[in-house]
Amino acid sequence: MKIPIYQVDAFTSHLFAGNPAAVCPLEEWPDEATMQAIAAENNLSETAFFVPRGDRFHLRWFTPAVEVDLCGHATLASAFVIFNHLTPRLASVAFDTQSGELVVRRQGDLLAMDFPARPPQPLTPHERLVDALGTQPEQVLASRDYLVIYRDAEQVRTLQPNMDLVAGLDRFAVIVTAPGDDCDFVSRFFAPAGGVNEDPVTGSAHCTLVPYWSKRLRKTRLHARQISARGGELFCEDQGERVQIAGRAVLYLKGEIYLP
After folding, report:
1. pTM (predicted TM-score)
2. Is the dihedral of CA 98, 106, 199, 236 positive or negative?
3. Taking a C-beta distance cutoff of 8 angstroms, is the pair 4, 260 a contact?
């Protein structure tokens, strides 16, 4: 059995930056254990699998360790593969996922994703959160993930979290963020419990970041940078119950997976 595989750098316009995702177009679903094994073998933060359903696609995402309910960069990468290699006539593509319908549209040289908003709320954080991050933040909120707000981009850039402690927290991941120097805001994303110590660029995190920064900055259109070692750029819009997250992508490789 052979499965096509593409590797795409998402949220960047050049190779060796942004967030690499593997994309596997399928005719039908293999068993879950096979998809998880492929994701572990790829050893990227996400591997996306999709199956056509009429004029739509059913899309799933796997880290090297677990299946996740939402992933931005691998959705962007999947749309990039469909638009550029499978069905170039399309202007938009609709995915059915664990997080509902996700639509990706061409927008000039950008691909714009329509995602659910996940506004953060105040809470009493886990007692080891500050120890895990190593630096006292200004504020802690949460939705699916912790949203930890710092004073400036340099604090976010120089954080050196204790990943063992982060993995023991009571949320899937930790987003850290601050005002940007040459953009509206910056962020980083840590999810060691999900098999990804630091994700290079995280679309799903912006489902929480965009509502927060839109309210704080009193603007709906936002320019964001994720300041991991690889780095990435996102163009976002707060649309109330939805957020638009747009970016560029570039193909790194195309090949085949051989299964017994």
Report:
1. 0.95
2. negative
3. no
